[in-house]
Every structure is written in C-alpha cells, then in structure tokens.
Batch of 3 targets.
Target 1
Amino acid sequence: MADVNPPLDGRPIDGSVHAASAWAELEDLSEGPSPSLRDLFAGDPARDDRLGVECADLWVGLSRQHLTYEVLGHLHVLARQRRVTDTLTGVLLGEAVNGSEDRAAVHGALRARDRSPSGPGVEEAFATFDRMAELAESIRSGKATGATGQRITALVQLGIGGSHLGPALVTDALRHLAHPDVTIRFSAGIDADDLDEALHGLDPASTLVVACSKSFTTIETLTALDGALAWLTIGVGDRAMDHVLAVTAAPDRARDHGIGDDRILEIPLAVGGRFSVGSAVGLPVMVAIGPDAFDELLAGMRVVDSLSAGLPVEENAAVLLALVDVWNHGHLGRGSVAVVPYAHRLRLFTPWLQQLSMESLGKRVCQNGSDPETPTGAVIWGATGTDAQHAFFQLLHQGTDVVPVDFIGVARPAVDDDRSRKGAEVLMTNLAAQADALAFGRTADEVRADGVDENLVAHRTFPGDRPSTAILLPELTPSTLGQLMALYENRTVATAALLGINPFDQWGVELGKQMALDLAEGTAPASELLRRARSLREG
Ligand code: F6P
C-alpha cells in the first residue's frame, strides 16, 4: 500500500488518525512486548547518535524514548500519511489552515525576513513593525517623553494569555540583553494586586501602558486598563491617554475606549494569540532588547519554521517530537509531559508552553467535527531544574504514573565568568544524571550489591524505563530562544495535523467566560458557591 495520501486541498487532513494504515501498525506494536530502555541502549551503542537530530542550533535527543526502529519507521509513515509537513508549509505561507474559524494562520508569514507578504494582514503587519521599531528606538534613546515632558523609562504591558505569556517569557529570558534604563513589567489580571505589583514604584509621568488584547474584549485586560488609567490620571491628569498604547486586531474597539489611531498598533486577525509574540504583541520585547535583537528572534523562528516545513520527516525535529507525543499519549497512554528547563532564564517557558500546547491541542473533535478516536493534548506542566528535582521528581522516579519529561539544557551561560560557567556545568550534569536515572533506574540486585539492608531494598529500587527527551541549546540568544519557541510551536501544529484537530481555535474557553459575564451582569442566577463567597466578603 502506498504510504502517502494524494494531496487534497492544502488543508490538514481532518478526520481521525485511525484512518491512516500506519496507526493500526503502531497499535499492534504498542500492544505487544516492548524492550526496556536498558535493553534498547544495551543492544545499540550508537542509539544516542542515531536518535539525535539537529534543528538549526538546537539538538534534540530522542534516544530515551520508547522507540524501536520498527516503531519509528511506522511513525515516519504516519507523518507522511497525515501530510504533516504540508500543514507546516501552509502555516509558513500564511494559508487558511484554521478550518473552524475559516481563517489563515499567519504567525509564520510574519517572520519572513525578506518581508515577502503572504497571508491576510501580513503586509500591514510589516508596516507596523516599522512603527514599533521607531517607538522602541525613541524609548531606548531617551527621546520618548510623556505628557509632562518626562522621559519614558517604563513600559507596562496589560494582557493575558497570548498577550502576556510569550512577551513575558522572552523579556525575562533575554534580560541580560535588556536596556538598563527601561523597566518592563506585565500585568495579566483582574486581581488588583496584580496591577498594583506591576505599577509599584513606577512614576505615571514616565510610564507607558500598553493595553494588549487581540479582541479588545477580554475582561481581565480591560479591567486592568481601567485601573491603570486611574493611576495615570493621578499622575498626569487628563493627559492620561497620552501614556496608553493599544495592540489589537480590533482597532474599532480600542477607539471606543478613547485610544487614538496614532496610538494603536494593529495585529492581523489571523495571528493566533498564543502564536503572537512575533507580532506587535512583542512590543515590550522590542523595547527591552532593541529592534535588531527582536529581528534576530524572528529570524531564529523563521529558520526553524522553514526546517519544519521543508525537511523530510526522518530529519525533522518538530515532526519527530510530535510523533513521539502521539506515540506516548495515543498508544502508550501517557497523558502528561513534564517540561523541565535547566535554566533560570527559562523559568517562564512552561507557562508559555502550557497555553501554546493545551489551548491548541485540548480538543475533542477533529477539524471536520468527527471524533478523533484517540487522546489529544497531554497535560503540560513543569518547573525549572534543579528546583523541580526537589519538588516533583520523586514522583517521576518512583511514582506509579509514567510521565515523559522534556529536559531543556543551555550549554553556555549568558554571562561568561567562572561562577556562571561552573553553574552551567553543574546544571548540565544534573540534567544528564536525571535523564539516565529515569531511563535506567536501579534494580533490586544493584541496590543489594551496594550493601543496602534488605528491609530497604524495595524503597531504594528505581524501576527506570521512564522516557525523556533532551533539547540542548548552545546558549540563550534571541536567535536560539526563537528557535526553541518555534520548535515547540511547530511540534504543536504537527501534533494537531497528525490527530486531525485544529490547533488554532479555542472554543473551550468561551463558555466559562460567557457564564462569568452573565453572573457579573446578573442575567444568570448566582449559584450557592457565589452567594457564599459574596457573604464571606461582606463579613
Ligand atoms: O484564553 C483565551 C484567550 O482567548 C487566548 O486565546 C488569548 O491569548 C487570551 O484569551 C487573550 O485574548 P485577547 O488577546 O483577545 O485579550
């Protein structure tokens, strides 16, 4: 049987993955006996090399996954049968891959370094980049002033979800490259404490507030905007609006809030919130690290986008990662992935990835409305190593659930001094040790051979055979961070393409939002829970 479906209409295949013949082969293999990771390594000394793949400056190691070469072969066929790289090409070109919203996805097209426009709103977005760069340069050079003539020295971005997590991650991760005289903060919440913390110690006269909301209807962001305006008004009176910018795909709604056209940076409707850091949503990043470094971030993303769309599946890191995710969840029943970056600067990586992955893959219907007939998105969680080792690794090593781990390591520290180099080495040895301990464990006989008291042998035994992936960056730069983020984006899109689901919609968050609105407006009766909370507040 041919292992490649004929091209259809450029859209992802949207029925259940069960339709692919490779799925049935994999199902059979997953039900049969499978060698342990110890056996796989013992029988194949070159396994690390054979299951390692380069992706631009990144290296991805899959040797500690439960993959035999037979399984891998069928996974490759599955990727071809599901035409996964066609979908990634569609995203690269800004095509209409978002079926349920009848929209393109243009985040990839925005990263075209030659600015060749493809996809709706992309040309306009390139012009917006120029406005952003001008603004960023004027803030960084000290030329930008507020209503009272004071220099702008702080930018506070109000936004939630995709309007927060990407820019917050990048700004935090590249803090070592940030302009020393410009403070960047974020506030993502309705909770007044959140905004208070973001504004703490800042002077309204020297602060720019960016209301970042693709829809400009998000209650969290609009509430924060009201709070920020009140704070600005105390500082600069009726010129408060001079200190506000809007980033949105709904300029009319921003105008309704009194924000003038010259203070609105428009993003295309077809850029998904969780994929939007490379649009005007990334303004704080550009202000922090400068337009050139922002460009390097996008260039890094673009390189990985091109590799993800263009490489054969056997050498394609994003597709291989997606295949492993589908194998682990769909066939081996592992419903969560712990993501552990061994770098303090990547501490916001997991929260960013949680939205990217779970909002994209948390679906229970295919693009065409049919049942995917297999588990879809895994639960993503995690924290930085080594903190995670002292928090949840006990469960990973000896708990009853098998949780695949993504280890992310950075070889060179951002600061080139002895202390940082030593720290980077200790982090890497911990990463390597944890990956091996999970994979190979420690048998009862090995424990006994160490002279451990028989009463404690069971306690000191590690089952091992616990899978992990390693992703290594040479160092953390705008380019490599862009590469890492794009790799995970493309892995997410590729997983969706394999499963036939739409990674670009998020209908699942609408119901709760609407119900909260109904309760707030009194059009729905208060539940007992809400009555109790209100009475507690009133005392
Ligand atoms: O959480 C739901 C969501 O719609 C996300 O997809 C989005 O990133 C976030 O809310 C914020 O939306 P907006 O940018 O429109 O305020």
Note: The chain has three domains: 17-98+311-505, 122-267, 509-538.
Target 2
Amino acid sequence: MQKRLSLNEYMNGILAGNRIILSRAITLIESQLPQDKPLAQQLLEQLLPYTGNSVRIGITGVPGVGKSTFIEVFGKTITSLNKKIAVLAIDPTSQLTKGSIMGDKTRMEELAHDPLAYIRPSPAGSSLGGVANKTRETILLCEAAGYEIIVVETVGVGQSETVVKGMVDFFLLLMLAGAGDELQGIKRGIIEMADAIAITKTDGENAQAAQNARLEYLHALHLYPTPVNGWVVPVMTCSALQNQGILEIWQTIALYAEKTKTSGFWQQNRQQQNLGWMYDFIQQTLEEDFFSDPIVTEKIPRIQSDILAGKILPVQGAKELLGSVKRTH
Ligand code: GDP
C-alpha cells in the first residue's frame, strides 16, 4: 500500500489543483480500511468550504449509445472554453462481476491527456450505495481541486441512474435513434429523470432517423407532467464523430444552471440531495455494521440453510439475526 500523506499535504495539494495528490486523496476516501476513515473524514470536513461550486452533470445511456465518445468531445469542448472538467464513473457491473462495462477499454484517451481534464474510473465497492457515497465524496474533492464541471457517467441499465440523479444538478440521457425504448432497456422512470435528452450519432445514414426520433421523444415528453422546476426538457441531436450539437448541449446545461439558480431550485435541489446523502449513509453504515458483526457472521450459514430447507420462515431468520446484534448506535 502506498504511504498516506498528512492532512496538510492532502489539503494543500488538492487546493493547488495537484492531480497526483487529488488521486491519492480519492484513493484514501475509497479505502475500506478502518484506519483510513478518520483521516478521510477530517480531509472532507476541512475541504468543505471549498466545495459546491461546480456544475454536476449526470450522463447515462445504454452501452454502445456513444457515452465515452460523447464525453470525450464534450470534455474537449469544455476545456477549449478554458474550464476544468472531471469525469467520474459509476459502473454497476464492476461490483457484481469482475468484468466492467465501462472500465476495461482505454476510454477517452485524448481527454485523459488534457491538462484541464481529470478522469477517474469507477470505485470498487460491495454495494451500489457504498460506491455512491464514495462518488459523492469524490465530487467534493474534485470541486476543491478547482474542477468547474463534474460529469458522473453511468450505464443506463439499472438502479444506478436513480443514484446518480441524487447527486447531480443536471441529468442528461443519451439515446439512439430507431432502437426503440424497450430495445434500449430504458425504463420509463429514466426518461422522467432527464433534464435533457440527446440523440447520439446524428450523422451519415443515421441523420434522418435521429431527426425523426427527436420528434418522437418530444411528443412522448408532452405526455409527462411539466417538471416542478418549470424547465421544459429539450430533445437535442448530436454527433460526437462530427463534433456537432455538443457545444449546444453545454450551452443548454449552462442555461439550466442560470435559470434554476435564479429561481432557487438549484439550491433547493442540492439541499434535498444532502438530506438524501445523510439517510443513505445511515442505511449503509447500519448494514455494514450488521454484516460485519461476528455473531451475525457465525449464525448466517445455519440460518440460511434452515431457510433453504424450509425449516424456518425468512422473517424468523431475519429476526434471530437482528436480535443477536448489540446496538452501538
Ligand atoms: P459507450 O458504450 O456508450 O461508451 O459507447 P462508445 O462511445 O464506446 O461508442 C460505441 C460505438 O459508437 C463506437 O463504435 C463509436 O465509434 C460509435 N460512435 C460514437 N459516437 C458516434 C457518433 O457520433 N457517430 C457515429 N456514427 N458513431 C459513433
């Protein structure tokens, strides 16, 4: 294991925008080792005054929709405006299988070499909730390091969108033309979460289909109630390959930020997200404590086999386990 730095070394390095120290600080907060937790906590507390000043953007879409290609061009657009961008990922597959949908191939190589960009792969974790909490903390560290735009990328196939929606200011859904919602595995709820939809690969033979898809989605969105913040969800088209429509997407996000900051929705949303974070943390801590309890660990195999054999009811097993833990909170 790499040696830990002192609190001051982390603080000063991050505030100076030193990417190596930022990476080491993220490794510290991602650490599962109990002895790392106090330092990680202190660091976050001390950095808090320097956080919150970014535009946090969630980007989702099924594998193959063009996320990494899009984010690369989007990122280059941001850095060409002389703004710093950090790209974080939540990859729901990496916890379940060793293979990851997003992590293996070399992604966003050009952006990765841009001095104004910082790319961090998905943290490993035992649960989506745990990974989500680490990502929230990573967002804060990146903000303290001066990143003005933070992208949290996820694959549009499961629960991770809800988790990402709970930590970003703007949620962008990337869609393919002509594939049909069911085919894309996009659930109705995900469309409802979107602050903008962008149809990708609007180029070559696909251009007409993309324009048609745009109209279809616009029509479909009319069937949903207007969002509480009054924002009319735009359906845009883009081509990362031809660098078309990407700047417009950034301008739309910037407009959203301006409007919702004026209306107060931006701040309210972040307040609610902070409450959500607290409840998630409680849930996660209780769960971790419970499953690391030695009595629970010892009893689980027997109770599991009793349930499998139909000897006891699941609730009875759960109650026995719950009852055997000493409550420390
Ligand atoms: P991801 O799995 O969502 O990250 O998708 P990728 O970014 O890896 O892209 C999947 C495939 O779509 C790759 O073969 C890309 O070259 C292609 N692709 C991505 N963006 C575009 C685009 O704007 N136009 C076209 N024609 N192809 C694209």
Note: The chain has a mean pLDDT of 89.
Target 3
Amino acid sequence: MEILEKRIQQDGLVKKGNVLKVDNFLNHQMDIQLFNEMGKEFKRLFADKPINKILTIESSGIGIACVVAQYFDVPVVFAKKTQSINLDGEVYSSKIESFTHKRVYDVIVSRKYLGPEDHILIIDDFLANGCAVNGLIEIIEHAGATIEGIGIAIEKGQQIGGKLLREKGYQVESLAIIDAMDDETGEITFRH
Ligand code: 5GP
C-alpha cells in the first residue's frame, strides 16, 4: 500500500535490534485518515470472507482494529495481557513472547466473546516472528472459531513470522512488507 510505505519512509525510525519506530502515526500518535485507508484496503482484500468479528491484542492493535471494524461492521475483541492469570475456566489463554519488550505475557480472552460460531479476522500493527499472531491463533482454536484471515499493517519480511503463517495456509495480508532496514543509514526497502 503506497501511502503506508511513503509514510514509513518519511517518519519511520530504524532502531538497533531490528525495531522500526513508527510512533508518529501508528504506535503513539495515530493518523486516523491513514487508518481509514488501511481499513478500506483490508475490506477489499477480505471481501469474500464471512467475517463477523475482529480479534487483536492490546495495546497497539486496538486502534487499527477499531477503524478496520467499521468497514466490516463487526465488533472488535482484544486479547488482554495479564501477569496474574486466574485460570478459572472463564477465559481462553495463551502465552506470547513480546518482540519489543523481550518478555513473556499471558494473554486472555473471555469465553463470553469468542465461540465456535465466530469467523475471525486477526488484525495487528506488526508481524515479526509471529508470536503475537500465533498466540491469537491458539486462542481462536481453543474457542473452536474459524480463522478467516490475518491483516497486518507492517510486516518485517526479514523475520520468519509471515512465511511460516503463509506456509500453514493462512491468508496473510500485510499492507507494507519490509525487505530490509539498516539502523546505521536508516534506509528501508520494501518487498512488492
Ligand atoms: P511478533 O510477535 O510477530 O514477533 O512481533 C509482533 C509484535 O511485536 C507486534 O504486536 C508489535 O507490537 C511488536 N513489534 C514487533 N516488531 C516491531 C517493530 O519493529 N516495531 C514496533 N513498533 N513493534 C514491533
């Protein structure tokens, strides 16, 4: 998606450790016009899917998911990160290792908001090694719901997550796929 690639080129900062900072339009300040364009594009890409719910993970996925949801006219459920997990049978849970914070979280979704009748579109801001998305997949599988697709704003194509998910047969649509980025020159190249 050209406008997203342009915005990444303009405002993205390449940090050490293979991290792209996009705080000025996605992860801190949010550009809702841009999110709207992303929502339209996801609707086009998943137009033939019977999606009735969007699942994301707190916190960065929520803003995008809410704007995208308006194009599908469906609710958003977000997986909550928690440290003191109370496994009382009321929730589905999974463990996710955070790429940016280098720690493991338990994430939970209430059984009230996910079940076998649901057809889910997963939305997240970044795809790197795929831990976050795989945690969400595990939760959806526990619930017996159907995964209709995975929509990502920025995929770091130099990491393995996207490749593995596509090999498993999921429809993964990333609006910008980074091929390489250099923390010394700040150069970012995209895959098309
Ligand atoms: P994964 O679980 O696929 O390894 O990483 C994806 C998650 O880590 C996303 O939910 C995102 O919040 C975070 N993340 C991974 N890489 C980056 C990055 O380069 N920049 C930012 N801002 N977040 C990232």
Note: The chain has a mean pLDDT of 95.
